[in-house]
């Protein structure tokens, strides 16, 4: 501000002043008595001497071309001036406020400068009244002539001063209080109501305190002084929140994107995941939680309500108060309330969330309150346990960051520039360059940020004609209607070419580390299966439909949800499985091969051959005890890969219908039929073989005396009553013998049997028995028909 002054007043000596003499251009420190000059507070004073003027400026040394906030007076007789800071004086305070009745605050201090102009001593005083200030000019003559001083006008450099034009005589005081706002200075007590169509007003209070009202940074004026909230958040991998700030998600967790206290049962969640690189995450899906229900917006335009898939089109479908629609650009979900509208758009890659409502509505989540940490906004209950793990990968040397930056900067050129005033392109450019300087510009990513900015502009009624032709982009959603599994993402086979489902980098890495195309073989007692990963097969250019086992009719089954391909065989269909065995193991082996597989020395077709096998340990031997009076005994057995139940029963008839019970009396030489039966074994795969059975009169299998009934799987030829009806044929063993007793020791009889399981494929499990005549019984037992006996039995297996 310039105050041209005629320094022609009389000199008055200020008693008690601690003067500092100024002899050259200087910067004076007035921080102990700062002056608020028409609404601008200053703590320094710049003093200039010229041939014609002495100038006091607040913001810089005087420059005629750039005058600034200055007070200009006539040049003194000599290049000297005295500078003082004077503390408040009650008499002076009353005198000034009597002179200037607009001053409301109390005097705190003053800055005074005295110099001689011709025959007058001129004192310029600047008074500090807090937010207010005053200027005084006093002149006293040294000789007989009395001059007057006048402030002709007040101007702030390049700034209009509303209604300020002051003039006064010697000993008068000027009120230099005011407020500044948007390039305009207002006098105290001024209230300016602007056009209600832009909803703003300015008030400069009586004590020169500025007060403004208007729409907030996220609001727009609807007219009639009504402000409405209208804000948009864009989420790709980076998040451009409603304030235009950027957040970057480095992990693969779920986060709260948007919520508002006015809707406690509504939340928008974002689920992030990796794609081609393990160290870069992108938005993978969006979930709207509404009144306890989940509406999932997923890749390819798929929409699910809880666990059910919805069929959508361009017509709105109301689902739990949410309007859902789908077109070629993506899926839109809109929630309409009495005074609040929330819309969520998702095209499979980018989500844009818009909130329209009354002023004062708050936005929380990653899209809103940026002061909260990512950990606070992470939704652990909707995330995997390992989602927070972060990875480092080597930089992609094929990426030209300079070229990428030029591409992203298209947002500052036409036709995008027509929207730059309403939608700041800088956050979109930053998100674009940060991503594409690290991740290859494939899978539609080259257009993703340009498309997101275009849609944000369209929400504010900007139509960017010709943007698709300028950028060679399409407005349609990338990979629309192609659904990939959780461990896959949709990408381009070639740049700008057809699309397919690719394995996510982290998922694929565990297979690539072992040079594998699938999971380990799953071996069970009656079957085996091998599962291959569909997207890994496609990476190798292998069509799963051309693959089969050794039996060409045995082909892989595709899981439509996971795209995993499973090959299997079982006892009902061995699919050409080869079985080999040695003393310790049983090995089942098969091969997955391509339809055009050839064993010739040369071939002109792609060949696929994947061998897989199951190795089972030979079954073990176990021991249990059976008392015939208990009718039967059953025991669960685990032997190698097999789990089954063995039951032993005794009968008095050949058809095995009359079970020996606890009260059945058995006579010596009476024929007994024994049944050793299993449950849980596949008779097509294995057979139960009784290697040997023998009797003792004690519970221990190694006690004596001992009598053999079965030896090497065959009836003991020394006991002509023993007959083996079935052994090694199926999953049961049947044999019979005549009752007897030992002539030495206890009258009880314990029966012991040693059994094993025999894999049937490639083996003859039925024992080969000699037809030679059986010899007489051992001398250690005899027939005594008149003596009844109870029999206890035990066996080993």
TrEMBL record:
<dbReference type="InterPro" id="IPR042235">
    <property type="entry name" value="ZP-C_dom"/>
</dbReference>
<feature type="signal peptide">
    <location>
        <begin position="1"/>
        <end position="17"/>
    </location>
</feature>
<dbReference type="InterPro" id="IPR014853">
    <property type="entry name" value="VWF/SSPO/ZAN-like_Cys-rich_dom"/>
</dbReference>
<feature type="domain" description="VWFD">
    <location>
        <begin position="225"/>
        <end position="402"/>
    </location>
</feature>
<dbReference type="InterPro" id="IPR055355">
    <property type="entry name" value="ZP-C"/>
</dbReference>
<dbReference type="InterPro" id="IPR001507">
    <property type="entry name" value="ZP_dom"/>
</dbReference>
<dbReference type="InterPro" id="IPR001846">
    <property type="entry name" value="VWF_type-D"/>
</dbReference>
<keyword id="KW-0732">Signal</keyword>
<dbReference type="Pfam" id="PF00100">
    <property type="entry name" value="Zona_pellucida"/>
</dbReference>
<protein>
    <submittedName>
        <fullName>Seminal plasma glycoprotein 120</fullName>
    </submittedName>
</protein>
<feature type="domain" description="ZP">
    <location>
        <begin position="522"/>
        <end position="776"/>
    </location>
</feature>
<dbReference type="InterPro" id="IPR045860">
    <property type="entry name" value="Snake_toxin-like_sf"/>
</dbReference>
<keyword id="KW-1015">Disulfide bond</keyword>
<dbReference type="Pfam" id="PF08742">
    <property type="entry name" value="C8"/>
</dbReference>
């Amino acid at each position: 501000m310039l105050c041209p002054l005629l320094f022609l007043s009389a000199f008055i000596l200020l008693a008690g002043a601690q003067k500092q003499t100024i002899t050259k251009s200087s910067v004076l420190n007035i921080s102990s008595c700062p002056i608020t000059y028409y609404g601008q507070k200053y703590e320094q004073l710049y003093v200039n001497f010229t041939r014609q003027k002495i100038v006091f400026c607040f913001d810089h040394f005087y420059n005629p071309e750039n005058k600034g906030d200055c007070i200009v007076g006539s040049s003194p007789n000599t290049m000297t001036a005295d500078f003082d800071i004077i503390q408040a004086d009650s008499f002076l305070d009353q005198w000034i406020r009597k002179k200037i009745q607009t001053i409301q605050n109390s005097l705190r201090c003053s800055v005074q400068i005295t110099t001689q102009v011709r025959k007058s001593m001129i004192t310029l005083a600047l008074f500090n009244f807090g937010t207010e200030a005053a200027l005084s000019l006093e002149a006293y003559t040294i000789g007989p002539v009395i001059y007057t001083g006048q402030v002709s006008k007040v101007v702030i450099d390049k700034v209009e001063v509303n209604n300020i034009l002051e003039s006064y005589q010697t000993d008068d005081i000027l009120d230099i209080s005011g407020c500044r706002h948007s390039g305009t200075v207002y006098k105290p007590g001024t209230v300016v109501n602007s056009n209600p169509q832009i909803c703003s007003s300015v008030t400069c209070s009586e004590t020169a305190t500025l007060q403004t009202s208007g729409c907030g940074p996220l609001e727009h004026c609807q007219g009639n002084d009504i402000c409405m909230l209208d804000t948009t958040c864009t989420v790709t991998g980076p998040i451009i929140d409603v304030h235009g700030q950027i957040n970057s998600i480095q992990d693969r967790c779920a986060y709260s994107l948007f919520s508002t206290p006015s809707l406690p049962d509504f939340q928008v969640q974002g689920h992030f995941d990796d794609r081609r690189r393990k160290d870069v995450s992108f938005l993978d899906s969006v979930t709207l939680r509404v009144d306890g229900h989940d509406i999932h917006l997923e890749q390819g335009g798929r929409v699910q309500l809880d666990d059910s898939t919805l069929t959508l089109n361009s017509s709105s479908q109301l689902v739990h108060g949410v309007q859902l629609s789908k077109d070629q650009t993506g899926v839109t979900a809109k929630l309409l309330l009495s005074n609040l509208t929330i819309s969520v758009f998702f095209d499979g890659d980018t989500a844009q969330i818009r909130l329209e409502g009354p002023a004062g509505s708050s936005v929380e989540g990653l899209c809103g309150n940026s002061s909260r940490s990512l950990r606070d906004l992470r939704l652990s209950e909707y995330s995997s346990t390992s989602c927070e793990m972060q990875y480092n990968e080597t930089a992609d040397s094929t990426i030209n960051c300079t070229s990428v930056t030029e591409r992203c900067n298209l947002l500052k050129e036409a036709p995008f520039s027509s929207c730059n005033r309403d939608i700041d392109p800088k956050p979109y450019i930053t998100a674009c360059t940060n991503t594409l300087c690290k991740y290859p510009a494939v899978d539609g990513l080259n257009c993703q940020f340009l498309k997101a900015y275009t849609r944000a502009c369209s929400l504010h009624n900007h139509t960017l004609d010709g943007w698709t032709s300028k950028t060679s982009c399409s407005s349609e959603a990338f990979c629309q209607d192609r659904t990939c599994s959780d461990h896959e993402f949709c990408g381009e086979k070639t740049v700008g070419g057809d699309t397919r489902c690719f394995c996510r980098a982290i998922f694929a890495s565990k297979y690539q580390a072992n040079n594998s195309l699938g999971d380990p073989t799953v071996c069970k007692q009656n079957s085996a299966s091998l599962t291959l990963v569909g997207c890994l097969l496609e990476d190798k250019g292998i069509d799963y439909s051309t693959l089969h086992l050794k039996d060409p009719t045995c082909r892989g089954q595709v899981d439509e949800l996971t795209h995993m391909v499973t090959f299997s065989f079982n006892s009902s269909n061995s699919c050409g499985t080869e079985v080999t065995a040695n003393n310790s193991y049983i090995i089942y082996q098969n091969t997955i091969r391509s339809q055009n597989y050839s064993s010739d020395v040369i071939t002109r077709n792609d060949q696929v051959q994947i061998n897989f096998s199951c190795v089972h340990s030979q079954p073990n031997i176990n021991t249990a005890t059976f008392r015939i009076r208990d009718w039967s005994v059953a025991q669960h057995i685990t032997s190698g890969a097999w789990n089954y139940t063995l039951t032993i029963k005794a009968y008095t008839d050949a058809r095995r219908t009359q079970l020996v019970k606890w009260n059945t009396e058995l006579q010596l030489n009476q024929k007994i039929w024994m049944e050793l039966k299993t449950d849980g074994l596949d008779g097509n795969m294995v057979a139960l073989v009784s290697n040997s059975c023998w009797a003792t009169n004690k519970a221990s299998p190694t006690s004596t005396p001992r009598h053999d009934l079965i030896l090497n799987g065959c009836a003991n030829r020394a006991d002509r009553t023993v007959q083996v009806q079935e052994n090694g044929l199926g999953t049961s063993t049947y044999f019979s013998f005549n009752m007897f007793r030992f002539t030495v020791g206890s009258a009880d009889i314990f029966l012991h049997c040693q059994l094993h399981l025999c894999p049937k494929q490639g083996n003859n499990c039925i024992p080969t028995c000699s037809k030679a005549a059986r010899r007489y019984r051992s001398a250690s037992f005899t027939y005594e028909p008149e003596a009844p006996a109870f029999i206890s039995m035990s066996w080993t297996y």
